Amino acid sequence: MRTFKTLWINLLGVFVSLLVYSTINNYFIDRTVSRNFFQAIVAAAFLIGLYGILFWMYFILMLLLLDFVLDIKALKKIRYKLFIQWLITSLPVLYWALRYEQQRVFFLIAIVSFFITQILKKYLIKKIASKATRET
Questions:
Q1: Among candidate residues 112, 105, 123, 122, the one with its CA nearest the CA of residue 89
Q2: Pairwise CA distance, residues 26 & 44, whole Å
Q3: What is the tens place of the pLDDT at every residue in 75-128?
Q4: Where are the transmembrane segments (predicted)?
């Protein structure tokens, strides 16, 4: 149950990293369209939210499913279970990165940022567990 309280860190971390990449790409790199910075942010948000809807559905479903299946009872095995969750979730996304050349960087950034947020999630779960043990 501890892991369900920490899902937000994965969602927020991946979304923010993709938003930053897409904004930079829309504003600085893609010079085919002239736009201001606000338009670049809005275009990036639409790109992530609408174009990547299959990615988000898969990502959220896998997070929920694997958090339920790999319920972390013993904190000493947390690193392995989070790595397994990252690996199982990232392999199809890696396949998409290899298959679809235009979105390759998008998917690779999502994989890397998901790995970083898994590391942060480990510390957050430990913090929640220590807080729960102090309260009892």
A1: 112
A2: 7
A3: 778 888 899 999 999 999 999 999 989 889 989 999 999 999 999 998 888 888
A4: 7-29, 41-66, 78-98, 104-124
